[in-house]
Amino acid sequence: MSVETTTSTSETTPSTSETTPVRTAHHRRYLMCTPSHFTVNYSINPWMEPSRPTDTANAVAQWQKLHDLYLELGHEVELIDPLADYPDMVYTANGGFVIDGRAYVPKFRFVERQGEAPAFADWFREAGYDTVIPEEVNEGEGDFLLVGDVILAGTGFRSTGDSHREVGEVFDREVVSLNLVDPRFYHLDTAIAVLDPVQGVENGGPERANIAYLPGAFDDASRGILEERFPDAILVSDEDGSVFGLNSASDGYNVVISPRAKGFEKQLRERGYNPIMVDLSELLLGGGGIKCCTLELRPSSARSGTGE
Ligand code: ARG
């Protein structure tokens, strides 16, 4: 698939000035899981309070809107069957890390989620992915983000430093390790949003690989690395970070974000992106948002980002 459309919605590209780059939407293939068994009956992150009631029907309804939006945007969505004993399985970002048709399977830190890993491994095998079973503790795309040809890898709460080495070997790519220090932002995808995964400069395109991040989620050394590598990054406020504003899904033009992240919404518009708001308040009770519910399935030939 090499078709790149400006946007497949009825939205028009915002008028551009010399300072607002023209953005391009790229086709995406995602893996999602209906939250039919969603609840919070254990706590493995500061957002989860088992004593607070959850509404599974509301979780399903909110999730469905996200699912349908992806289809409206022209993306493909694959589904994995939910397992009754695994209420967190809706957060498919933790179900693996997929590049070039190869799937690196997770090894969950907490026993409560460990039974999800074989189900994801089976799904990948059946779907024809070259499926790699890990030795090291890692939580998939929750902690690994592909930006251009580089893997940004988070550690501090879930995935281990050893998994950063392992993921680099599995995909033969440079890995940049980043230390997360705030327990509310325990996965990298709660603290960084990849806006333009494609390295357009090499491809003759107008885009540069770029990200948005929450500086306070990282230690000084990691912040230094981010500043150096991504001088054009959008820095989001604590306010927007704290409502999981960064836990968003971008196709290079459309960026699906929480409606509570008002400042981030404005920043995205100023940079020529098209923020689209989807409310996953129910799933936030489990400590997850839009990106957590979305695993990108990158087929072969994605290297250097040809869009597909
Ligand atoms: N309750 C889940 C956990 O703590 C939430 C996972 C959120 N996923 C993510 N990609 N950040 O593991």
UniProtKB/TrEMBL annotation:
This is Amidinotransferase. Signal peptide: none annotated. Residues 1-26 are annotated as: Disordered. Keywords: Transferase. One of its GO terms (molecular function) is transferase activity. SUPFAM superfamilies: Pentein (SSF55909). Coiled coil: none annotated. It comes from Microbacterium foliorum. It comes from the Bacteria. Residues 1-22 have a biased composition (Low complexity).
